[in-house]
Amino acid sequence: MESILAFIAEHELMIYFIILSVFVGIEVIGKVPTVLHTPLMSGANAIHGVVIVGAIIVMLNTEPDNYALLGLGFLAVLLGTLNVVGGFVVTDRMLEMFKKK
Hints:
Strand content: under 5%
Number of domains: 2
Number of helices: 5
Mean pLDDT: 85
Order of helices and strands: HHHHH
Largest sheet: none
């Protein structure tokens, strides 16, 4: 219990920042009209390229015998790639809807 309290005391500003970010994100997303939710989410999925780059950097800097970290990094790259590709596919399908035949 003391280690948890020490962690909270040490990272107090970061915890406040995350809580504030959650509330701001809820307010921003709550104000978006329903018509724009799909393009907004497909664009947000495409931003997950940052996750892919971060996972690759972590995997490059880990020791070769640390299989747990390498496995998590591989999983992060795989899921991040699926999210980016899915975001682009949804965006492409939405843009196809607005093209004249």
